[in-house]
């Protein structure tokens, strides 16, 4: 118990120090990030994830720029019973290109999302600080244009997640999954 508490405290200190410096990618291009992405990697120390990571599978995200340069985020994930889990957010632009904020009605938290690395036709690394009741948690996601990613990209995602305070056991490459049909 004591070693777990110390590890969590060390991760929190790391998160507080590292996350303040995480900046979006330079020369972010909103139009090029648009389209379909597969959510292939997921990393967070949040307790809900720790409890459910063994059953999580790959989902899809559609990123759609709006006329005022905000970003519509639409997520879907095929459940084991064949039904679909869906969630949408309207991420508002900030003064920093590649950085967006939104409130999640589903989770009742405020989100500060930064696209920190991107090769527009290959992958995007997304870093989000989620805050609820004054408590912040980091969530890193690895998006890919295809369901497959290279070992080099997976290692890049893992290393970034470790540097932002995520414990190694909470960095997961999600197994492939079927896709939800359009509603």
UniProtKB/TrEMBL annotation:
Keywords linked to the UniProt accession: Signal
Keyword Nucleotide-binding: no
Alphabetical list of PROSITE patterns matching this protein: LIPOCALIN (PS00213), PROKAR_LIPOPROTEIN (PS51257)
Domain Lipocalin/cytosolic fatty-acid binding: 34-176
Signal peptide: 1-20
One GO MF term attached to the UniProt entry: small molecule binding
Pfam families, alphabetized: Lipocalin (PF00061)
Family: Belongs to the calycin superfamily. Lipocalin family.
UniProt name for this protein: Prostaglandin D2 synthase b, tandem duplicate 2
Organism: Neolamprologus brichardi (Fairy cichlid)
């Amino acid at each position: 118990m004591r070693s777990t508490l110390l590890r969590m405290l060390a991760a929190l200190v790391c998160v507080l120090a590292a996350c303040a410096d995480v900046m979006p990618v330079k020369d972010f291009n909103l139009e090029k990030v648009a389209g379909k992405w597969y959510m292939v990697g997921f990393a967070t120390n949040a307790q809900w994830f720790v409890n459910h990571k063994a059953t999580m599978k790959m989902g899809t995200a559609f990123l759609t720029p709006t006329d005022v340069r905000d970003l519509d985020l639409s997520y879907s994930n095929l459940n084991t019973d064949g039904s679909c889990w869906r969630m949408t957010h309207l991420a508002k632009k900030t003064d920093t290109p590649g950085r967006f904020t939104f409130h999640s009605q589903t989770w009742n938290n405020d989100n500060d999302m930064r696209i920190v690395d991107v090769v527009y036709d290959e992958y995007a690394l997304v870093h989000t600080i989620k805050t609820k009741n004054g408590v912040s948690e980091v969530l890193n996601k690895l998006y890919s244009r295809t369901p497959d990613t290279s070992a080099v990209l997976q290692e890049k995602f893992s290393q970034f997640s470790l540097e932002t305070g995520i414990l190694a056991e909470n960095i997961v490459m999600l197994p492939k999954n079927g896709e939800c049909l359009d509603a």
